[in-house]
């Protein structure tokens, strides 16, 4: 099977997120981007499928600051092709990003699309479902392991409480991956460097689809820090003592 | 376009989901504000009896078809899309759940309707719909204004009280025929897979010690087990720990895991992503240990500390023994 994995770069949530002067978006100059962690799982699952059943894995991403690094890393992990899509605004909506992706994916020879189930910034919907809708093919979100048997794809879709629904389909289909069957592999820096010398990232320019959002962001804000919690001070030892007191009190052992 | 508010009912094994009642309670308020009716889209097979529990609504649009019985994104999108085209509501409320994710964005493209997802609040202000989304792992909130026309809001489960929407009654029923496309679905529902039993039932525990990514390595799990033992509780976890297979799925708390309501919830190295909070925010006492002072968990916790969990946990275990 030929598998396409559209990925998204999202702001690194470890960093402090700052709001811009207009108060309606993140201050994009201050951001550092990294791969959406669910997309990392989608890449891993795609590589697992390739290892077991053959075929190819093509990873696509819209151009951002760190896109080259992320795409070279995907190649170092075992992806066959990496495509960088240029021409789409950095603050593009999920709809616009998905539409741009659909134009490129539509021109590829593919059977399956695996992408992260969601990303931290998809305010107007998730990439996988939007992409499937633009491509006019079915989708299932929140899936974990993907099984291939002949021409049939089987997945489990997760519901609350640990219940899962099993779905079967024949390609083409878009799957929103929640978790790969194993923790995403790591590509050593030396391997990434080697790939940077040997492999190329293809570039495809698309016309910015500029899908009108329909919704205008009036205000973006960070919730007040630690608003709810009473912070316990002192050393770790002091804090442990205070927690022990709280716990004993609650358990009726004070 | 009407001024009606349409709630998409979600159900599993014939039972309406709590989130449907949460949306109904809020939908009632919104319909008062828009001056429209509150409608429910009830897609399913043999779900007619559920209408009696939808008394909060003015009208229930029933689409009955064997292929709509168990949720399947493809026929559900086809049926819902047709229903929304016919009814042209002002606002469509869909749960931002596993099922709802497969509906909202697809409906948005099919009917060319704007969508705001991950909403924790929806209001009508000066005649305009305003939705507040929780983004970036709960670190940022965004208020979006619907500029005019119709729109869809994907609402996170647990955002509103379900009791406000739970009301028996006899709302008007409108039968709608399922579109032919429902029968053309290529995606096949092949049954439900129930979770394996036999493990500790974390929903029945009074004390839970929860671990997240901050635990860093599986080697640190015994330290957590020891603390849980000293407290007479059980260990549970956020999603990444279960994905790494350090704990079984039966210990996962959150959106795709279990909802817990213990007396004590000790959150260690958990950032408090919305998916996790959904499963534990009703705990009676939440104490969070996380070195990141901006972690959203502190918003919901009653007590917190930014001391390192690797220092706090052994000290705490020693004090409890």
As a whole number of angstroms, the C-alpha radius of gyration of chain A is: 21 Å
Largest sheet, strands/sense/barrel of chain B: 9 strands, mixed
What structural class should be given to the helix and strand makeup of chain B? alpha/beta
Mean pLDDT across residues of chain B: 94
For the record, the count of structural domains of chain B works out to: 2
Spatial sequence of strands, sheet with the most strands of chain B: 9-8-7-10-6-1-4-5-11
Q: What is the mean predicted local confidence, pLDDT of chain A?
A: 93
The CATH architecture name of the largest domain in chain B reads: 3-Layer(aba) Sandwich
Beta fraction of chain B: 25-35%
Distance between the termini of chain A: 63 Å
SS summary, helix count of chain B: 8
* Biggest β-sheet strands, sense, barrel of chain A: 9 strands, mixed
Order of helices and strands of chain A: EEEHEHEHEHEEEEHEEEH
Total helical segments of chain A: 6
Concise overview:
The complex is a heterodimer of chains A (254) and B (321). By secondary structure, chain A is of the alpha/beta class. Chain A is 29% helix and 28% strand.
Describe this structure in words.
The complex is a heterodimer of chains A (about 250) and B (about 325). Helices cover about 30% and strands about 30% of the residues of chain A. Chain A is α/β, with parallel strands linked by helices and about 250 residues long. In chain A, helix 2 (about 65-75) crosses helix 5 and helix 3 (about 95-105) crosses helix 4 (about 125-135). Chain A is globular and about 60 Å long. The mean pLDDT of chain A is about 95. Chain B is an alpha/beta fold and about 325 residues long. Chain B is built from eight helices and 17 strands. Chain B has helices at about 20-35, 75-85, 100-110, 220-230, 240-245, 275-280, 295-300, 310-320; strands spanning about 5-10, 10, 15, 40-45, 60-65, 90-95, 115-125, 130-135, 140-145, 150-155, 170-175, 190-195, 205-210, 235, 265-270, 285-290, 305. At the A-B interface, helix 4, strand 7, strand 8, strand 9 and strand 12 of A face helix 3, strand 7, strand 8, strand 9 and strand 12 of B.
């Amino acid at each position: 099977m030929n598998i396409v994995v559209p990925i998204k770069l999202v702001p690194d949530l470890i960093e402090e997120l700052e709001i811009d002067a207009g108060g309606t978006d993140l201050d994009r100059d201050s951001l550092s981007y990294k791969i959406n962690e669910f997309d990392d799982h989608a890449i891993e699952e795609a590589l697992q499928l390739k290892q077991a059943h053959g075929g190819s894995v093509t990873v696509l991403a819209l151009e951002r600051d760190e896109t080259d690094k992320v795409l070279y890393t995907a190649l170092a992990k075992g992806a066959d092709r990496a495509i960088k899509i240029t021409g789409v605004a950095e603050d593009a909506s999920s709809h616009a990003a998905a539409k741009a992706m659909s134009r490129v994916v539509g021109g590829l020879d593919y059977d399956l699309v695996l992408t992260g189930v969601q990303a931290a910034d998809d305010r107007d919907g998730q990439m996988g479902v939007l992409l499937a809708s633009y491509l006019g093919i079915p989708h299932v979100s929140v899936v974990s392991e993907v099984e291939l048997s002949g021409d049939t794809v089987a997945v489990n879709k997760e519901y609350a409480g640990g219940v899962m629904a099993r779905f079967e389909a024949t390609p083409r289909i878009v799957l929103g991956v929640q978790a790969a069957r194993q923790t995403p592999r790591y590509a050593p820096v030396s391997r990434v460097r080697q790939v940077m010398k040997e492999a190329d990232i293809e570039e495809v320019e698309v016309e910015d689809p500029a899908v009108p959002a329909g919704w205008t962001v009036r205000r973006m804000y960070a919730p007040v820090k630690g608003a709810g919690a009473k912070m316990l001070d002192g050393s770790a030892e002091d804090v442990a003592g205070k927690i022990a007191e709280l716990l004993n009190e609650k358990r009726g052992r004070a | 376009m009407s001024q009606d508010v349409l709630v998409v009912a979600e159900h599993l094994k014939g039972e309406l989901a709590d989130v449907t009642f949460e949306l109904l309670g809020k939908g009632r308020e919104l319909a008062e504000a828009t001056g429209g009716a509150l409608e429910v889209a009830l897609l399913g097979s043999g779900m007619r009896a559920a209408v009696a529990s939808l008394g909060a609504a003015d009208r229930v649009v029933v689409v009955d078809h064997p292929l709509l019985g168990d949720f399947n994104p493809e026929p559900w999108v086809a049926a819902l899309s047709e229903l929304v085209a016919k009814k042209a509501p002002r606002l469509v409320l869909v749960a931002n759940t596993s099922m709802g994710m497969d509906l909202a964005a697809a409906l948005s493209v099919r009917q060319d309707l704007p969508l705001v997802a991950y909403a924790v609040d929806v209001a009508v202000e000066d005649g305009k719909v305003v939705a507040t989304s929780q983004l970036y792992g709960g670190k940022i909130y965004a208020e979006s204004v619907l500029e005019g026309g119709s729109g869809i809001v994907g609402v996170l489960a647990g955002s509103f009280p379900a009791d406000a929407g739970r009301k028996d009654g006899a709302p008007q029923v409108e039968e709608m025929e399922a579109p032919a496309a429902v029968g053309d679905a290529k995606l096949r529902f092949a049954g439900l897979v129930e979770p394996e039993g036999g493990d500790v039932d974390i929903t029945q525990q009074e004390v839970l010690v929860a671990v997240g990514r901050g635990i860093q390595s599986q080697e640190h799990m015994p330290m957590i087990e020891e603390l849980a033992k000293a407290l007479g509780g059980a260990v549970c976890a956020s999603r990444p720990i279960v994905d790494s297979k350090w704990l079984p799925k039966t210990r996962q708390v959150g959106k795709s895991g279990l909802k817990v309501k213990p007396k004590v919830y000790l959150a260690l190295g958990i950032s408090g992503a919305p998916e996790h909070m959904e499963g534990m925010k009703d705990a009676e006492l939440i104490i969070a240990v996380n070195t990141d002072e901006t972690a959203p968990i502190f918003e919901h916790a009653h007590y917190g500390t930014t001391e390192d969990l690797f220092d706090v946990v052994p000290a705490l275990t020693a004090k409890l023994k």
